[in-house]
Design brief:
Layout: E1 2-10, H1 16-32, E2 36-52, E3 55-67, H2 69-81, E4 85-92, H3 101-137, H4 142-152
Antiparallel strand pairs: 1-3, 1-4, 2-3
Length: 170
């Protein structure tokens, strides 16, 4: 099951009791399909950020529920058919889900593995620094190759414009 968060904005012409009945019907839909409603917040009438269908206000409600994706799709389908709902926003809210004991164990093992790999990289990093220092002292090492590459781009007759063939130069 996944956790979803949905905010509904209903038309202000709908009485508060009817809006509550509609939200209760949506809760029953989720429960019938095997989901669990965790929280229902009725925020009441609030001013809209912009007019929707010539309404300046709307009745807001928030639902937090766990359900399968099919249940959420059916919920959204029914919301689209409902005339009283002006807008809705459905978001997966898995980040709010509290991990189970098995998930906590798996997370702890992943953290230990990450720390072990970081220690290995640090040990290899010390070896890489030693190799880089040795390459600088050896003729033809990495430092000399880098100097050669810089010299290749220093061109006395280049004026900063597009490069041309030597035959095109005056």
């Amino acid at each position: 099951m996944r956790r979803y968060e949905m905010v509904l904005v209903a038309a202000p012409t709908v009485p508060e009791e009817d809006h509550d009945q509609q939200v209760t019907a949506f809760e029953q839909l989720i429960a019938e399909r095997g989901g669990t409603v965790l929280k229902v917040d009725r925020w009441g009438r609030r001013k809209l950020a912009f007019p929707i269908n010539k309404f300046q206000e709307g009745n807001y409600s928030l639902l937090l529920y766990d359900a399968e994706p099919e249940v959420e799709k059916e919920f959204v389908r029914r919301l689209k058919l409902t005339d009283t709902v002006l807008r809705f926003l459905s978001v997966r809210a898995d980040h709010e889900k509290v991990p189970t004991a098995e998930e906590k164990v798996a997370l702890e093992e992943a953290r230990r593995e990450h720390l072990r790999r970081a220690a290995e990289r640090a040990a290899l990093g010390d070896a890489a620094d030693a190799l880089a220092a040795a390459a600088e002292t050896v003729p033809g090492g990495e430092a000399e190759v880098a100097r050669f590459d810089e010299d290749a781009f220093e061109d006395d007759d280049w004026d900063g414009g597009p490069r041309r063939n030597r035959e095109d130069l005056p």
